[in-house]
């Protein structure tokens, strides 16, 4: 499919550190995940993001498209919403 001028640039994905990891690390399995398990999983995912060469692009994409789930650019969905509402930087 051809990208339009309005479509976000996603070429950065080719350089994503998370390509080496299962998606479940960034999105979880289902709602049965216990809070402590979730925090541990999210911390592991954030450590991967901290090494990622395209972290800034990834976060910008998630904020622009209002991604509702998962770790993007090192932030959880709750952290991204808080950032968009000016509660954190
Ligand atoms: S910042 Fe994290 S979620 Fe985004 S591309 Fe990099 S490793 Fe993947």
Polypeptide structure, described:
The protein is an all-alpha fold and about 90 residues long. It has one domain (about 20-85). It is built from 4 helices and no strands. It has helices spanning about 25, 35-50, 55-65, 75-85. The termini are far apart. The chain binds iron/sulfur cluster (SF4). The site of iron/sulfur cluster has 14 residues, from helix 2 and helix 3.
Chart the SSEs and their pairings.
Blueprint: H1 24-27, H2 35-49, H3 55-65, H4 77-84
The protein binds iron/sulfur cluster (SF4).
Iron/sulfur cluster binds at residues 16-18, 26, 48-49, 52, 54-55, 58, 71-74.
Short structural description:
The chain has four helices and no strands. By secondary structure, the chain is an all-alpha fold.
Tally of DSSP helical segments: 4
First-residue to last-residue Cα separation: 35 Å
Poorly predicted regions are none
Structural class: mainly alpha
Features:
mainly alpha; binds iron/sulfur cluster; 89 residues
